[in-house]
Prior knowledge:
Largest sheet: 5 strands, mixed
Number of helices: 14
Low-confidence stretches: 10-29
Structural class: alpha+beta
Helix content: 40-55%
Radius of gyration: 35 Å
Amino acid sequence: MSLSRAILSTRLCLTKASVSSSCPVFRLHPAPCGVRKLHVPGPVLGPGADHKYQSQEEKDEKAKAAKKKQRVVLIGLSAGLVAGGLYGYLSYRKRQKVTTLGNDSQTKEFLLDTPPPQFPPARSIVIPGRSQSCKITLFQYQTCPFCCKARVFLDYFGFNYDVIEVNSVMRTQVKWSKYKKVPIVVVQYGDKVIQVNDSSVIVSALYSLLVDSGDTQLEQVMDCYPTIRYMDEGVEKAEIQNKYFLMFNETKVSRTKEDIVEERRWRRWVDDELVHSLSPNVYRTPGESLAAFQWFSEVGRWEELFSAWERYLVIYLGASVMWLLGKRLKKRHNLKDDVRQSLYDQCNHWLKALSKKGTPFMGGDQPNLADLAVFGVLTAVEGCEAFGDARNETKIGGWFDR
């Protein structure tokens, strides 16, 4: 048999086999210059090969692509929510005309010419049988650590006061004030209207008045806490002086100088260290942040105080903003990568100092202003996952529940 006939016979056999079999076949095609070449029409797959099969690498790539798409969608939704909220807020603000209260004299900025606008109080704290010569109004966020600190002080010493819950996004209730932060306490007695800003000043001033009330008026006490303004990189900043100092006649209290200095040091630690470990923990993840704001709404009774759109704006916009802000605060205050550990460290630092002192409280058998400050800021997060973890990992719960 000649070579050409043998090749022709082979081609016929292969062609018949390709009709009756699903497997790919090899075909011989004439090549230029009279050279025969082998042509493979498709990938060669062994028996039982499945085109639907995906390798682990392919699955991982698809999973990464899905997560990336989900992240983009989440960022887009958050951006849309923030933009919509800001637009609504700016539109609302244009419709509002609120006069800022103050006084023409720059020597006593804490004195107001007229009382603030009337807002329905979220609640009124009245101690049965307690008479009080002045009216106290607290402007606050229910779960702000500094507001909680001021409120714990007022409750512990039995002050009667009204609580005005401030919308944290709209801030309608404090538009009258040049000072835009909370807490703010407004004290009215006689023809005087005094605005006390900053939680530490509120505690120091009212405690000083409480101890020395027979000989001193609040206006005299407030003169001891002047506000100093200065420029820092082109931005005007203000700082209240002496805010951890108590202004009373030392002969009226039976305390050593060492105790007073120690109390002052721990009060400063609460503001400079403990508080800054809370927000990055409470808003650690989007889920934790949203859960925290839902708890804030519940304990703050926002459903009763704010309209539905205001409440949802505060919850969802606030949760998104604070989750992003929490990451910045973590870097700003040099917290550990695992921010929970920073919170545990602060709790243990406080407990170690108490153990060394050998008393249940920093004030001895009874709490002093440092104890109230620590307890106050922790009440702000007691319903959050972060504080639950701190209870499990440290002994702070035992002290907190006393």
